[in-house]
TrEMBL record, chains A, B:
GO terms for molecular function: ATP binding; histidine-tRNA ligase activity; identical protein binding; RNA binding. Belongs to the class-II aminoacyl-tRNA synthetase family. The gene is LOC115656336. The keyword Signal does not apply. Residues 68-401 form the Aminoacyl-transfer RNA synthetases class-II family profile domain. GO terms for biological process: histidyl-tRNA aminoacylation; mitochondrial translation. This is histidine--tRNA ligase.
């Protein structure tokens, strides 16, 4: 018997970012999810008379997420999960443990750690009790955790959302609530070995995500300190000058010089002296040697230390085979105050969708460095725990991935369902419930339509829409014959399977180790 | 050559909750993590002179997490991950998609949804712009998401932290920041089919977690509505009376009656009439039939509907083979206002660690129900989207799991590292870096000590401490012979492996499909 009208089979392909790693085992079919992409949509609502309370009358309110935040639809979380899996598998490959900390901290814990950026911290309302703030990054909570638990040696990762009351630019992946994926190594070790591993991790992740060509800029706060010192900048202006220099990746030297002279009060001559260093072409060992020969800079102890370690770092990166993607760049300064040694930042080198009208802005997708003083700020006795780490910025990567998926017309499955339990005729709800229960209990991912008497065509259409590869059909004749008709959605092939062999048969057809 | 002092091999076992599912593939060896369990520790700190700012001088502050919150140590996140994996695999088995929403919502979005509990909502400080609150559960954000994106049909799960300014009781797993694992089905379907699936899910999860015997209480808001109506309670007191009745699982009938009469202003006779119903022994089909015969209650339209659906629900649960764990219980009322139909709550039936001095308090570990009106409260035209869902409460389950692990003296691995790259003599850092880089690039989880010249004994001890099953040792002789010495930590067996075969050999020894 064949009561099945053939349906057009969808063209499912494995997306580029899934090819290098196998998920558990479902059939590699991907189906579009029909729903919403209206994450930023705003709807004016005339709220109906509240059904649940009497104190809530009619009033207008805006149906939206808070400014600078967004929901993730099933399609978006599916893409996000692939990115996370790539990052997590890398962090695990490097032997990291996991910790988690609360989304808010005592306000005092965050105070005095972020310099000028402290104004971007979200505070909670004083409702009695402690004064709290939402975390601004995962680094300060990590340092607080180490000091509180007297941990002097750990390698951990932490993936979580952080909060900044910044000006959002959501089309370019800049949000007020966003994920950071942090990997840090804490402990007293020999120079540059953990630092080099952090850079290896950035290299592995950006390579696996296939985001196109990238470059990792490195510098060292000690070298910058030496540069500023020989140019005549007082120590008290060090962090402030770092902030200004850090703008070189977006602004011209003239703008940066103007800020130094106009806002920071440096003389034009001092600014020009700084310019001579930070505008040097980025490089590798050559630039290091050049600076080590520099008559003024080579007299500065911190700079000499930093340059020596930079040389060591490049040796290790060469052994890792990744030195070609690393660029020693004196213009890299990083914004945050707490860095004390090596700093780095990874940038994507070209727009991913140059052919599209609005390319995703190219920019920093990872950054980090060494912060040897932060834990000591929390420790009762000021004991230092040297740390180095890296933070992968996910939102920009998501934006690129989303655009790639859209451009490629790949269908993304948002579920992993292996089989739909369907009925060929009416009055078979009980049989469907019994069968699906058996499948669930055997670990098979199964769905059914929540109708007493769904039409077969609707059941098959549901499989098409959701990329479900198999249909287990119960019918009157099949019940008599003690079989279930198993239909392969892509090929429309149908085969009667004895009821007792069904689970094995489904597993065989959906898992290809 | 054998320069290796034998070390005591740890006794690693697979923990009970890991036996039913295989993680990716690492050796199933579990090692204790030496660090911290001082999650709730409080340290008085004399803050050292701030190194990074000048506006932060010396002052006392408390080094702690905010009240009612905690950090998760690596050991705790490892246990947590197993619990999450069990829950997520169940949600996926039932074909759920994933969505995510921001941690805060517009304050207005949460207003008028939680009744008396609204006072427990965390508000953010008004720093200019929108008024925001931290989410109190995942249900209201889900309903807001559906209305905003005009979604009328979805099955999704969402695992995230929620926030309640409640009185914390952390030893019993009650926190101010805690996880909820929500599964919900939205859409217009035939009665009780999705509702039954939610109960099946609770049953599957509690069975797989092996938390001991459990019971799922069910009731229906429509039946309660009928009961209260025939007892003479006005509609306006319905939610308030539900709150009071809901206390029956912790308080005696006398206390509950006192609250009805003293605080809610009911007459003692009215309270007693309610008592006659809500104190009926819980049951199944028998109780349903008894109530359908009740001369007063059977006259109430809502109650008849609710009882009819309850009968249907039990039919479906019987087909699922789980009716023995389900108890129709008129004393179950649930606290939140938004339920409109079936409600349920799962409790563990006995203390898990009765032999220990402080048993984990037995209580509710899952709850949920039908809320057909909530989405309509957000929709501009009041269009309703019927929903039913369940929320798994994780903290209490974590507490039990943690105690079980501690009692069993199982060693929990907090990393998945397969191999440590070690050196037999000094001056082999370069060789270690080259080798580990190859291993990482082949997808092998590898670590090395961050020392230039670590002692072999320290390297082997690191493997013991962290449950790393293999050591790849480079030595001078091995380099000459173009081999690597592979040592199995548990058996101390050593074998020379040709360098070009090493990756294959490690994979062979650590993956058992």
């Amino acid at each position: 018997m064949n009561w099945l009208r053939p349906l057009a089979a969808g063209a499912y392909r494995v997306p580029f970012w899934a090819q290098h790693r196998a998920p558990s085992c479902p059939l590699r079919a991907f189906a579009a999810h029909p729903e919403n992409q209206v994450a930023e949509g705003v709807v004016k609502v005339q709220q109906p008379k509240a059904q649940l309370g009497t104190d809530e009358g009619k009033k207008n309110f805006i149906l939206k997420t808070p400014k600078g935040t967004r929901d993730y639809s099933p399609k978006q979380t599916a893409i996000r999960e692939k990115v996370f899996n790539t990052i997590i598998s890398c962090f695990k490959r490097h032997g990291a443990e996991v910790i988690d900390t609360p989304v808010f901290e005592l306000k005092e814990t965050l105070m005095g750690k972020y310099g000028e950026d402290s104004k971007l911290i979200y505070d909670l309302k004083d409702q009695g009790g402690e004064l709290l703030s939402l975390r601004y990054d995962l680094t300060v909570p990590f340092a607080r955790y180490l000091a509180m638990n007297k941990i002097t040696n750990i390698k951990r990762y932490h993936i979580a959302k952080v909060y900044r009351r910044d000006n959002p630019a959501m089309t370019r992946g800049r949000y007020r609530e966003f994920y950071q994926c942090d990997f840090d190594i804490a402990g007293h070790f020999d120079p540059m070995i953990p630092d080099a591993e952090c850079l290896k991790i950035v290299h592995e992740i950006l390579s696996m995500l296939q985001l196109g060509d990238f470059l990792i800029k490195v510098n060292d706060r000690r070298i910058l300190n030496g540069v500023f010192a020989v140019c005549g900048i007082p120590d008290s202006l060090f962090h402030s000058t770092c902030s200004t220099v850090d703008k070189l990746n977006k602004a011209t030297w003239e703008d940066v010089k103007n800020e130094m002279v106009g806002e920071k009060g440096l003389s034009p001559e001092t600014a020009d002296r700084i310019g001579e260093y930070v505008r040097m072409p980025a490089g590798g060992l050559g630039l290091i040697e050049q600076l080590l020969q520099d008559p003024k800079l080579s007299q500065n102890k911190l700079a000499r230390e930093g340059l020596g370690d930079m040389k060591l770092l490049f040796e290790y990166l060469t052994l890792f085979g990744i030195a070609d993607k690393i660029s020693f760049d004196l213009s890299l300064a990083r914004g945050l105050d707490y860095y004390t040694g090596v700093i780095y930042e990874a940038i994507l080198l070209q727009p991913q969708n140059a052919h599209k009208e609005e390319p995703v802005g190219v920019g920093s997708v990872a950054g980090g460095g060494r912060y040897d003083g932060l834990v000591g700020m929390f420790d009762p006795k000021g004991r230092k725990v040297p740390c180095v780490g890296v933070s992968i910025g996910i939102e920009r990567i998501f934006s690129i991935m989303e655009q790639k998926v859209e451009a490629s017309e790949e269908k993304i499955r948002t579920t992993e369902t292996q089989v739909l339990v369907a009925a060929a005729q009416k009055k078979l709800l009980e049989e469907r419930l019994k069968l699906i229960s058996e499948l669930w209990d055997s670990g098979i991912k199964a769905e059914m339509l929540y109708k007493k008497n769904p039409k077969l065509l609707n059941q098959l259409q549901y499989c098409e829409d959701n990329g479900i590869p198999l249909v287990a059909i119960v019918g009157e004749q099949e019940l008599k014959d003690e079989v279930v008709k198993l239909r392969v959605v892509a090929t429309r092939e149908e085969v009667d399977v004895r009821r007792e062999n069904l689970i094995e048969e489904i597993k065989r057809r959906t898992c290809h180790p």
